[in-house]
Design a protein that fits this description.
The chain is mainly alpha-helical and 178 residues long. 66% of the residues lie in helices and 8% in strands. The protein has four helices and three strands, in the order αααββαβ. The chain is elongated and about 90 Å long.
Length: 178
């Protein structure tokens, strides 16, 4: 009788382990499917047929670079903001940690606003697109142009110097070449 109940327990344990394996495999399959669909929908995979002979043109590559850069930057910023909000909201965080997190959140929000303003002003100067990232040590600008003349760099630099407290030596301007 004891052997029979032990056999039933082993059988139930195997079936629960089998269920867990099936669920885990299903989750992995869904994750892979999500990744494939994300790639397909973001790259217009469905809208172009292989017979068209369409290749990614320079304009598409530039547009993809700038939009991907912005998306990556926004994702990183959202994660950082979420982390800071968690510290601020936590009852177990020390007051000093909360104060530091609030200061960092305020600086992050100020940087986001300044980057958007600078990007818009650079576009207003006649550039097709630009992305700006600010840190404590420097400001980086990537401009949608294969080569920059000194006059164009001066225009970008003047915008940055007027809108921020960075010095000219802290500004890095990079032309984007596809």
């Amino acid at each position: 009788m004891a052997e029979q109940t032990q056999a039933v327990k082993v059988k139930k344990q195997l079936s629960s382990n089998a269920k867990k394996v099936i669920i885990l495999c299903s989750m992995v399959a869904l994750l892979v499917l999500t990744g494939v669909l994300n790639f397909a929908l973001n790259s217009d995979w469905f809208s172009k047929s292989p017979a068209d002979g369409d290749q990614l043109t320079g304009g598409d590559a530039v547009e993809t670079f700038f939009s991907t850069y912005r998306t990556s930057r926004e994702t990183a910023r959202a994660e950082e903001m979420s982390y800071l909000e968690a510290i601020i909201a936590s009852e177990t965080s020390a007051e000093e940690a909360k104060a530091t997190a609030e200061t960092m959140r305020e600086n992050l929000l100020n940087n986001i606003e300044a980057e958007l303003v600078i990007e818009s002003l650079i576009k207003a100067k006649g550039f097709d697109d630009a992305v700006v990232t600010m840190s404590t040590n420097n400001i980086n600008v990537i401009v949608n142009k294969s080569e920059l003349e000194s006059q164009e760099v001066a225009q970008i630099l003047s915008v940055i110097l007027e809108e921020t407290e960075y010095t000219a030596s802290e500004v890095v301007v990079v032309p984007y070449t596809a």
